[in-house]
């Protein structure tokens, strides 16, 4: 039976991916996470471990022994564990680089030693920096933050391990992901919902006209699954992933407001604050390559995705 290692598998994207793989495959899943951000309860809320399809190692992706143990017998690797906060990366670039570069290198080395057949890296739109939109795989990267730089280094090592050792690697540049199990996240969707439920008035940094490509975890999980199972043209592949739809932060706020109002929750108008350094103004992506090569097709539109994410928060969130 196929076995896959999910690093960072107690985090937001990780737990949603584990849930998707339980439903869409018969694979067994090994999870490694140091629980610095993710929650073990997210995993236990989706599976009771009774049929032993999931195993868990609490460990650090920078530690050879921890990764060896978690990867034992795995056919594939999905490397999600990372420092993910742009602002923290500006304040603490060494911490960001340590986990995102050295951690990735350690997981790649172990994947090579253990003879795994495919390695999927979670990258981001952050390596690209400010670009004419929509972005695609041909744009020349120019990161605005250390986080963008460390994610770009991860892509570089995936390409290098394919080129030097023939390891089959795929880097997926996620746009802004939202969905359930995002209680601990500081990204726009989770933050706005938490602030409103806590009775605070959210601050939109900048004019509110800045745009993002908000993509639901179900669609990201679909793309990861396809990246592990499809025949691919080259042994290093890079895909831009999102929905292809541009939404401004002000529009997002209105959608959140609409669905919270439908649940009888009052929503204040957001305050507009100063723009944050290192953040991209406009961002959405061209997903045509992922559609053509992977057969990727996002199925959750923003209204449906926000409605179900709000439902998850209403059922699970307590401040
Ligand atoms: N959420 C998004 O919008 C988004 C966008 C682009 C890219 N990504 C990428 O997707 C991946 C997953 O992000 P997420 O949003 O689920 O973040 P997350 O913080 O929820 O998940 C990351 C997980 O990695 C774990 N982790 C951190 N350092 C570790 C270490 N040294 N060893 C072991 N585990 C460690 C954390 O505890 C956490 O559970 C990351 O690589 C991130 O850069 C996310």
Care to count the β-strands? 13
Q: What gross morphology would you assign?
A: globular
Distance between the termini: 41 Å
**CATH level-1 class of the domain at 3-178 and 216-244 and 285-299:** Alpha Beta
Q: Major sheet: size, sense and barrel closure? A: 7 strands, parallel
Strand percent estimate: 15-25%
CATH-derived topology of the domain at 3-178 and 216-244 and 285-299: Rossmann fold
CATH superfamily of the domain at 3-178 and 216-244 and 285-299: NAD(P)-binding Rossmann-like Domain
Unreliable stretches covering 5 or more consecutive residues: none
Rg over C-alpha atoms, rounded to the nearest angstrom: 19 Å
Number of helices: 11
H/E series: EHEHEHEHHEHEEHEEEHEEHEHH
The residue fraction in helices comes out at 40-55%
Q: List bound small molecules.
A: nicotinamide-adenine-dinucleotide
Oligomer description? single chain
SS content category: alpha/beta
What is the mean predicted local confidence, pLDDT?
96
- Across the major sheet, the strand order is 3-2-1-4-5-6-11
CATH architecture descriptor name of the domain at 3-178 and 216-244 and 285-299: 3-Layer(aba) Sandwich
Quick take:
It is built from 11 helices and 13 strands. The chain has 319 residues and is of the alpha/beta class.
């Amino acid at each position: 039976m196929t076995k896959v290692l999910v690093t960072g598998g107690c985090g937001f994207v990780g737990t949603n991916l584990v849930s998707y793989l339980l439903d869409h495959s018969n694979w067994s899943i090994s999870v490694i996470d140091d629980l610095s951000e993710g929650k073990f309860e997210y995993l236990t809320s989706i599976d009771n471990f009774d049929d032993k399809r999931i195993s868990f190692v609490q460990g650090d992706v920078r530690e050879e022994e921890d990764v060896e143990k978690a990867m034992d017998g795995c056919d594939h690797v999905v490397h999600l564990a990372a420092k993910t906060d742009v602002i923290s990366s500006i304040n603490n670039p060494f911490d960001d680089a340590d986990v995102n570069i050295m951690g990735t290198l350690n997981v790649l080395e172990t994947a090579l030693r253990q003879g795994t057949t495919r390695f999927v890296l979670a990258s981001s739109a952050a390596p690209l920096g400010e670009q004419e939109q929509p972005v695609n795989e041909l744009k020349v990267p120019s990161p605005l933050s250390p986080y963008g730089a460390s994610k770009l280094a991860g892509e570089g090592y995936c390409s290098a391990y394919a080129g030097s050792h023939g390891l089959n690697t795929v880097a997926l540049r996620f746009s802004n992901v939202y969905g359930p199990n995002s209680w601990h996240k500081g990204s726009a969707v989770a933050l706005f919902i938490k602030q409103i439920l806590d009775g605070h008035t959210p601050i939109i940094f900048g004019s509110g006209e800045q745009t993002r490509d908000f993509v639901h975890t179900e669609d990201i999980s679909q793309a990861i699954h396809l990246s592990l199972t499809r025949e691919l043209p080259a042994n290093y592949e890079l895909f831009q992933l999102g929905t292809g739809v541009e939404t401004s932060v002000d529009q997002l706020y209105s959608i959140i407001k609409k669905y919270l109002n439908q649940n009888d929750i009052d929503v204040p108008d957001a305050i507009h604050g100063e723009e944050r350094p290192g953040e991209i103004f406009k961002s959405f992506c061209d997903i045509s390559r992922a559609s053509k090569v992977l057969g990727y097709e996002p199925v959750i539109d923003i209204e449906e995705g926000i409605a179900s994410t709000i439902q998850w928060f209403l059922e699970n969130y307590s401040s």
